[in-house]
Design a protein that fits this description.
mainly alpha; Arc Repressor Mutant, subunit A; 7 helices; Tscrpt_reg_PadR_N; WH_DNA-bd_sf; Negative transcription regulator PadR; WH-like_DNA-bd_sf
Length: 181
Amino acid sequence: MAIRYALLGLLTKGPHSGYDLHSIFKTQHIYFWNSTHSQVYQELNKMRDEELVTYETIVQEGSPNKKLYTITHKGEKRLIEWMMEEAIKPAKIKDEFLLRVSAFQAISVEEAITLLERILAREKAILAGTSQWQLEYYGEHTHPSYLEIGSYLTSEFGKRYAKMYVEWCEWALELLESYRV
């Protein structure tokens, strides 16, 4: 159900198509939430039925028509109620790689090092990509407009999370090196 509130929050910035909303998930929300294309559209349809959003059909030549979704007053009210009144659940980490790490004893030290090196490279690329995105989106400004504050704060979280992951991988690699025969 939280995808609903993520979508409503994005729509407070202005009208978006379902495609745009899914793209934002893939670029801006990647560190703390994920969704599939179909989840976005299913939730938009439910929210339309509940009058939390409306849409305008944009006719396009040479492309399928698109729906441009807008949050309603009822949708804004529900978003604010959720933000301010519902209990905030503890954060959950759901990281498939950490499941693999928890079973490192089943593979050789060399194999464990290989896996960690792959994840280290992935996280360095994510850190670089997020830093680049933030620079392109916000420029040198570290004090964006309030309309952009949510995206700025969450992208900064993403950078710091990736940096922590890089540091953890480097530490774990150093420890694993001590097990080499």
